[in-house]
């Protein structure tokens, strides 16, 4: 299975991650996400982590890195699909205030609009 | 006198990113024999992943090296995991363990590795000598 897949819709670029979001995966996908963002220049990048089965501090680093990269380009950033564990790690780093990690209800609405 | 462990595993792995998942998978499988909760197992997976990633990224700085893991299960449900490297060592362990502190300037490291290990384990000890390497010792009681 692909570790990252992209979808564009209504000015939003969604990057969906699959597998275990550790250092190994982060290294292999970060360049691909950045290249795609630079190529598409969307209004917002939606990083969809609903398909990941594991996340550690390297996953957190990937999220922080993409957030920073988007900000330098003037691209919006949204995180989608963080489960309880991912949220716990995001909270530990104080990232919930920095990144618009949405609640489940809002996320479900988004899923309908960003996917076919 | 200290009671001997009821089970033990020793692993020596090349410090490459692919082995981060191998290490946490092996230790989680080993720990599963102590009938841990789903959360405890997820905690262990994450803590081991952090320590091994530190070996790959910081201790050996993506150069060749080995990670030495020794995990033990005790009759009272305690799991201990010792993760050692023979890499560059940490000059200031206390500083390295400060949440959000990172030596990486690329903005890709969160600086939360040790903080996660501390949160997800009952006890963690770090011993390091510059030029000799680092030993991380973690302990967690399972099946509570």
Please tell me about this protein's structure.
The complex is a heterodimer of chains A (116) and B (144). Chain A has 116 residues and is α/β, with parallel strands linked by helices. Chain A has helices at residues 23-40, 57-73, 84-92, 104-114, and strands at 4-9, 12-21, 44-55, 76-80. Chain A has one domain: STAS domain (Transcription Regulator spoIIAA), CATH 3.30.750. Chain A has a 4-stranded mixed beta sheet, sandwiched between helices. In chain A, helix 1 (23-40) runs parallel beside helix 2 (57-73). Chain A starts with a strand and ends with a helix. Chain B has a single domain (7-141), classed as Histidine kinase-like ATPase, C-terminal domain (Heat Shock Protein 90, 2-Layer Sandwich). Chain B has 4 helices and 5 strands, in the order E-H-H-E-E-H-H-E-E. Chain B has helices spanning 18-31, 38-59, 93-96, 113-120, and strands at residues 7-14, 66-73, 78-85, 123-129, 133-141. Chain B has a 5-stranded antiparallel beta sheet with strand order 1-2-3-5-4, covered by helices on one side. In chain B, helix 1 packs antiparallel against helix 2 (38-59) and helix 2 (38-59) packs antiparallel against helix 4 (113-120). The longest helix of chain B is centred in the middle third of the chain and has 22 residues, at 38-59. The model of chain B has no long low-confidence stretch (mean pLDDT 95). The A-B interface holds A 20, 22-24, 26-27, 30, 54-58, 60-62, 64-65, 68, 85, 89, 92-93 and B 17-18, 20-21, 24, 42, 45-46, 49-50, 53, 56-57, 99-100, 106-113, 115-116, 119.
């Amino acid at each position: 299975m692909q570790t990252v897949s992209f979808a564009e819709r209504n000015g939003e670029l969604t990057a969906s991650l699959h597998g275990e979001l550790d250092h190994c995966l982060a290294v292999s996908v970060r360049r691909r996400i950045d290249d795609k963002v630079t190529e598409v220049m969307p209004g917002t990048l939606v990083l969809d982590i609903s398909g990941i089965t594991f996340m550690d501090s390297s996953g957190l680093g990937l999220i922080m890195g993409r957030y920073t990269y988007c900000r330098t380009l003037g691209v919006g950033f949204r995180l989608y699909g963080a489960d309880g564990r991912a949220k716990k790690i995001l909270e530990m780093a104080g990232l919930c205030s920095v990144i618009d990690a949405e609640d489940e209800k809002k996320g479900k609405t988004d899923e309908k609009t960003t996917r076919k | 006198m200290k009671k001997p462990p009821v089970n033990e595993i020793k692993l020596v792995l090349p410090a490459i990113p692919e082995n981060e998942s191998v290490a946490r998978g092996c230790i989680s499988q080993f720990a599963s024999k102590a009938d841990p909760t789903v959360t405890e197992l997820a905690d262990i997976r994450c803590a081991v992943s952090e320590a091994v990633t530190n070996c790959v990224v910081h201790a050996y700085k993506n150069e060749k090296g080995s990670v030495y893991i020794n995990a033990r299960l005790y009759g009272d449900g305690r799991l201990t995991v010792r993760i050692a490297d023979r890499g560059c060592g940490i000059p200031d362990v206390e500083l390295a363990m400060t949440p959000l502190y990172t030596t990486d300037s690329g903005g890709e490291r969160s600086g939360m590795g040790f903080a996660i290990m501390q949160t997800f384990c009952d006890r963690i000890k770090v011993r390091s000598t510059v030029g000799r390497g680092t030993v991380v010792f973690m302990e967690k009681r399972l099946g509570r």
